[in-house]
């Protein structure tokens, strides 16, 4: 149980870090949106590694699109996925 709890919060910390990385494009005007071309596929891949199965695949595609579309970097997709997985999902109640 303790190992599962540690993994749960490790995923939260990683998700917060990845969301912050995704939002960095707002810090550097002009160059930032170009960085999304690199970050979007990496973020999608990271999402599929963190959350296995069909839900992770769907979240990976959503994250990829969200990071690629200009102006949508503010959406904290990793944190939202963590909330869904660990707080809202029926399997965790």
Structure description:
75% of the residues lie in helices and 0% in strands. The protein has 93 residues and is mostly helical. It has a domain at 29-93. The radius of gyration is 14 Å and the shape is elongated. The two termini are 14 Å apart. 25% of the residues are buried. The mean pLDDT is 88.
Index terms:
elongated; mainly alpha; 0% strand; 75% helix; 93 residues
Write the layout of secondary structure elements.
Blueprint: H1 2-23, H2 31-50, H3 53-68, H4 77-88
Helix pairs in contact: 1-2, 1-4, 2-3
The run of helices and strands is HHHH
Rg, Cα atoms, Å? 14 Å
Count of DSSP strands? 0
Report the end-to-end length measured between terminal Cα atoms: 14 Å
By DSSP (H or I, 4+ residues per run), the number of helices equals 4
Morphology call: elongated
What structural class do you assign from the helix and strand content? mainly alpha
Q: How would you characterize the largest beta sheet? A: none
The percent range for strand residues is under 5%
pLDDT < 50 runs, ≥5 residues = none
Helix content: over 70%
pLDDT averaged residue by residue: 88
What's a quick, concise take on this entry?
Helix content is 75%, strand content 0%. It has 93 residues and is an all-alpha fold.
